[in-house]
Structure formats: C-alpha cells, structure tokens
Amino acid sequence: MLEKGVNISLLLESYGELLTERQREIVGLYRNDDLSLGEISEITGITRQGVSECIRKAEKELVFYEEKLGLQKAYEERKAVLGNVKSTVSSLLKNGDISPETAESILLSLEKAEN
Amino acid sequence: MLEKGVNISLLLESYGELLTERQREIVGLYRNDDLSLGEISEITGITRQGVSECIRKAEKELVFYEEKLGLQKAYEERKAVLGNVKSTVSSLLKNGDISPETAESILLSLEKAEN
To answer: Which residues of A have a CB under 8 Å from any CB of B?
Structure first.
C-alpha cells in the first residue's frame, strides 16, 4: 500500500468518478478522513482484509489514470504558470499601473481557470 | 455510430491514452484522417464490420470518460475565462497602461495555461 499522503487525495479528486462508489467511499475514509483499516471495516461491514484489498486496488487504478492522463501534473503546471501571472498583476496594481477593479477581475478569472 | 465531427477528435485527444493502441489508431483514421470504414478495413486487415464495431465501442468509452471527468467541458470553460483575461490585457496594452513586454509575458503564460 502507498504511503498515506496528500497525493492520493488529489488523485481521488481528479479521478474518483472512475472508481466505483464503494471504492471512492473507502479510499476517502482512509485518505481524507484518516480512518484506520479497522475503523473502516467497522463502518462498512467489510473485513479488514477486504478493506485493505479494496484500497490497494483502487489506488492502483488512480495511479494508472494519472500515468495515462496526467491531470494532476497538468494542474500543478497550470497553477505555477498562472501564479506567475498573478504576481505580475499584483506588481502592476502596486505600481498603480492598473486599477484595483481591473486587478480583482483578472485575479478572479485566474482563480477560476486554475481548476 | 455518432456523427462524424470535431467532438470525438477532441475527446480522442483528451482520453485517447485510455484506449488500446488499436482503438486509438482506428478512431484516429476515421475521425482525424476522415478515412471510410472500407479504407480502414484495407489498411488494418480487419473486416469492415470489425472496424465499425471497434469505432462504436471506442467512441462509447470516450463519451463515458467525458461524462465522468468532463475534461473537454473544463477546457472550454477555462478557455473562455482566460479569453476574458486576454481581452483585458490587450486593452491595457492599447491604453498604454502596461508595456508590450509585460503584455507579451502575460499572454504567453495564459496560452500555456489553456491546456
């Protein structure tokens, strides 16, 4: 099983819809809500072994989708690029080159475009 | 079978990696290169019926992925939002509020962030 970490949570956000509802629920409990295998077993009525197996399989699928589609990677790259634009806009605002309204409108759009 | 059109080509770009190599090749020949079923049959050595079946199945998968992940929809939305920012930047440049270098740098980043 992979290390607990933020990564799988993000992959779950990107590709969770491609998992079954049960897989999504169990991986969410494990990765987002930080429940133990035993706790998830109690909640779902699946054996501890079954929970572990479900997580292993689901996470393998999530990693597969990221390898194929690279949404997370693309998101990080987009975030970095748009972050540069944000910095530029902030500087322009600070120097009085653009109005607060213009800056706000641009920053709001950049925020929207990030996802 | 779906109408020939640009839509499947775009879905193929977004999700093609999730198809088999053979599916990707055949749908590409049909949608991007505009070959007929008969022509694809000759090239690939698969029966016309087999080509038709392959395309039907592959395109159903592409539509399924778009329903689940909505990458194409997200791309269109992002493009529209960033288009607004581009317009604003162009106006700022035109009014002499920002330098050509600053405008160019921002527009280049927006271009990169579109995909």
So the answer is: 14-15, 17-18, 65, 68-69, 71, 74, 77-78, 81-82, 84-85, 88-89, 92, 97-98, 102, 105-106, 109-110, 112-113, 115
Check residue A5 and report its DSSP letter: S
* Phi (first) and psi of residue B95, to 5 degrees: -80, 0
- Report the pLDDT value the prediction gives residue A115, as an integer from 0 to 100: 80
Predicted TM-score (pTM) of the model is 0.86
Q: How many angstroms separate the CA atoms of B60 and B18, rounded?
A: 12
pLDDT of residue B4: 45
What's the rounded mean pLDDT across residues B62-88?
95
Give me A76's structure tokens. Answer: 């990080």
- A5 burial (CB, 10 Å; 0-12 / 13-18 / 19+) is exposed
Q: Are B26 and B44 a contacting pair, CB within 8 Å?
A: yes
